[in-house]
């Protein structure tokens, strides 16, 4: 409790006591240089508008924070799959593969922000958490704060993005700082990587380098000199997917990006992601996304006002 200097001052007239907190003149920053730059924010609810799953993909220069507002989902970050639920926030570093499973509960609502120029003390550029730790944090009592700030940013940018851009940047910088402090206080490091996790890392690297080629479980096994049965077992144990399911999700995720952000013909995209038969590509894309590649591209562009 800190008492006012004068009970006769206008601010404290008739007040017996007041709480007052001061910000120190100097304090440690979690940022190396300037805070991250907010690139985008999206919010979606399953079953509303254009909201098919965005499967296996990464962003080379953008880090993401994803907050679950309602419901639950299976989410893969890097080499592991997590069940995320209301009040959880997921930290995805730049260049880290992540995958949104289509098996979401009917009321699942999520909001995510994309951040550029993430440079945190003690971490590589683009990283939001240490690679050895779990990327999912349960916010607990801080959940309403994160939800309120992100809702405010989303609303301000919807109303007048140009006018409120600076405001939103400062709000986001404060939220990232709060996330870092909460994570440092609450997150527990995973156990040190064992032999199985090292194998999984090698398998992922190989698949990500060769997904656009003809690839199979035997070919991966031969290339890495790992027994195919052990390879399949250990990979699914750590990721939740068989090696070939992982290949398919990676291919479809890459195709989603090409459909959204390029004008390549669908037949060319099929070849670029490893399908020499466009009909098979169309069938697999529809199976995993719930609509054909052509319809997906059309819906995405109509949702962006034809851009």
UniProtKB/TrEMBL annotation:
Under Gene3D superfamilies, the record lists: Homeodomain-like, Jelly Rolls
Q: Which molecular function GO terms apply here?
A: DNA-binding transcription factor activity; sequence-specific DNA binding
Query: What InterPro entries would the database entry show?
Result: Cupin_2, Homeodomain-like_sf, HTH_AraC, RmlC-like_jellyroll, RmlC_Cupin_sf, Tscrpt_reg_AraC-type_HTH
Look up the domain of life of the source: Bacteria
Which source organism does the UniProt entry give? Butyricicoccus porcorum
Query: Pfam families, alphabetically?
Result: Cupin_2, HTH_18
Q: What keywords sit in the KW lines?
A: DNA-binding, Transcription, Transcription regulation
Taxonomic classification, please?
A: Bacteria, Bacillati, Bacillota, Clostridia, Eubacteriales
Q: Where is the HTH araC/xylS-type domain?
A: 201-299
Q: What is this protein called?
A: HTH araC/xylS-type domain-containing protein
């Amino acid at each position: 409790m800190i008492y006012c200097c004068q009970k006769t001052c206008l601010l404290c007239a008739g007040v017996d006591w007041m709480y007052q907190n001061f910000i120190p003149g100097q304090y440690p920053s979690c940022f190396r240089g300037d805070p991250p730059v907010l690139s985008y924010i999206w919010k979606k609810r399953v079953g509303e508008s254009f909201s098919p799953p965005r499967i296996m993909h990464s962003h080379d220069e953008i880090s993401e924070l994803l907050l679950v507002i309602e419901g639950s989902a299976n989410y893969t970050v890097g080499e592991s799959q997590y069940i995320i639920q209301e009040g959880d926030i997921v930290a995805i570093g730049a260049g880290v593969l992540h995958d949104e499973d289509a098996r979401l509960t009917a009321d699942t609502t999520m909001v995510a922000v994309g951040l550029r120029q993430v440079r945190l003390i003690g971490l590589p550029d683009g990283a939001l958490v240490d690679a050895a730790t779990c990327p999912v944090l349960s916010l607990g009592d801080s959940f309403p704060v994160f939800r309120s700030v992100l809702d405010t940013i989303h609303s301000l940018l919807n109303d007048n993005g140009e006018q409120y851009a600076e405001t939103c940047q400062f709000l986001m910088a404060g939220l990232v700082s709060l996330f870092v402090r909460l994570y440092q206080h609450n997150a527990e490091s995973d156990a040190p990587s064992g032999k199985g996790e090292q194998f999984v890392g090698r398998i992922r690297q190989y698949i990500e380098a060769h997904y656009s080629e003809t690839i199979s479980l035997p070919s991966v096994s031969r290339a890495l000199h790992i027994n195919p049965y052990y390879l399949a077992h250990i990979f699914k144990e750590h990721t939740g997917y068989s090696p070939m399911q992982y290949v398919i999700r990676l291919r479809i995720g890459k195709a989603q990006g090409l459909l959204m952000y390029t004008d390549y013909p669908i037949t060319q995209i099929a070849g670029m992601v490893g399908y020499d038969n466009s009909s098979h590509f169309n069938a697999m894309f529809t199976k995993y996304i719930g609509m054909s590649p052509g319809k997906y591209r059309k819906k995405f562009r109509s949702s962006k006002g034809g851009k």
